[in-house]
Amino acid sequence: MTGLRTATGADVPAVVALVQQAYRGEASRAGWTTEADLLDGQRTDAAAVTALLGAPGSVVLLLEDDGRLLACCHVEARPAADGGTTGYVGMVAVDPARQGAGTGRALLAAAQAHARDALGATRLEMTVIAQRAELISWYERRGWRRTGERRPFPYGDERFGRPRRDDLEFVVLAHADG
C-alpha cells in the first residue's frame, strides 16, 4: 500500500540516498530527471536534510509503498511580498525506477495540498535549473507557470554539486492556483 507521511530524523539517510539517486551519477540516468550532464557531486547531504526537518514551517514529505521510499519533496512556508505565505516546493525526487508511473504527479499534488492546507500558502513557488527544459515542461503541464524571474546558481558552494558548465541559473515557477 502506498502512503504519504512526514519525514523524521530517522529518514535522513534514505532521503539523501533517494535524492542523489534521482539527480546525480549513473544511477540517475535510469530515469528522466537526471542532472548528471549538468552537475557532478552531491545534490544534498544529511546536514542539509536535517536542517530542513528542523526549520519552522518546513517538512519533507515521503511517499512510500510497503515501507519502501518511492519519492520525497521539501515544502516550506516563506513570507510573501503581499504579507501572505508562499509555499516553496523543492527537492522533488522520485526513484528513477518509478519515474513515468504517476508517482511524481501524486507527490506534487500532495505537496501543493500541504502547502495550502497545513501552511496556509496563498502562493506556490519552486525553482528549476533553466537548462532542464523537459522538467520545466512537465511542471507546466501540471499548472505551474514561469514567472519571468531568474535566480543565480550557487557556484562555488559544493553543497549543491559541482557544475559541469558555467551558464546554470534557476527559473522561478509559480502554481496557477497559488
Annotated CATH architecture: 3-Layer(aba) Sandwich
Biggest beta sheet attributes: 7 strands, mixed
Query: Could you name the ranges where pLDDT drops below 50 across 5 or more consecutive residues?
Result: none
Computed structural class:
alpha+beta
Quantity of strands, as a count: 9
What's the CATH H-level homologous superfamily?
Gcn5-related N-acetyltransferase (GNAT)
Instruction: Tell me the Rg in angstroms.
Output: 15 Å
Query: What is the N-to-C order of secondary-structure elements (H for helix, E for strand)?
Result: EHHEHEEEHEHEEE
Strand order of the largest sheet: 1-3-4-5-6-9-7
Report the mean per-residue pLDDT as an integer.
91
Strand fraction equals 25-35%
Q: Which oligomeric state applies?
A: single chain
Question: Helices and strands in order, then pairings?
Answer:
Elements: E1 2-6, H1 12-23, H2 25-28, E2 39-40, H3 46-54, E3 58-65, E4 68-79, E5 85-94, H4 103-117, E6 123-129, H5 133-140, E7 144-152, E8 162-163, E9 169-175
Parallel strand pairs: 5-6
Antiparallel strand pairs: 1-3, 2-8, 3-4, 4-5, 6-9, 7-9
InterPro entries: Acyl_CoA_acyltransferase (IPR016181), Bact_Acetyltransf (IPR050832), GNAT_dom (IPR000182)
EC number: 2.3.1.-
Protein name: GNAT family N-acetyltransferase
